[in-house]
Amino acid sequence: MSTGADLLRGPSAAAESVHRALLERGATCAAAESLTGGLVGAHLTAVPGASATFRGGAVTYATDTKASLLGVPRDLLADSGAVHPDVAEHMALGVRRLLEADYGVAVTGVAGPEPQDGQPVGTVYAAVALPGGGSAVRLFRFTGDRAGIRYRTVEGALALLDSAVRGEVAGNIPI
């Protein structure tokens, strides 16, 4: 498992793989984050040369910022809460549009210590918005403490993004 100190030693293998895949395709990505609070962006920018592939990110930790910055429908947030696959999808699409990237990756979930929106601790949705307008969403159910859940979320989101960039993920896949 990665830790904050690991970032000081260098980028994760997952972040390096995403960077290589994006470079090979001349593509860029952007990140929208909730429970990770900027860790996806931190991992991506730990890769030397990341400015060629990473456009930036939006940390939308508060529920209302998901709507105001990323265009997540307010009625979706009111009806389903922030921890929902459709919220993750809208976040990914919103950050892709906002930062004019080829791919958008997003994460929303419950790191703990308490459940949120009727979802247990460890419930995480990651989504990738694809260049053609499609998207892919994955559900993760992590166990462990808050820090562990957040870092496993980063690795899961980066793996999903890497697969999408490499063409191994088709749009609108079931969770």
Give the structure's gist in a few sentences.
The chain is built from seven helices and five strands, in the order H-H-E-H-E-H-H-H-E-E-E-H. The protein has helices at residues 4-9, 13-25, 39-45, 63-70, 74-80, 85-98, 146-165; strands spanning 29-33, 54-59, 103-109, 123-129, 135-141.
Characterize the structure shown.
There is one protein chain. The chain has 175 residues and is α/β, with parallel strands linked by helices. It has 7 helices and 5 strands; from the N terminus they run ααβαβαααβββα. Strands 2-1-3-4-5 form a 5-stranded mixed beta sheet, sandwiched between helices. Strand 4 and strand 5 form a beta hairpin. The longest helix is centred in the last third of the chain and has 20 residues. The two termini are 24 Å apart. The mean pLDDT is 93.
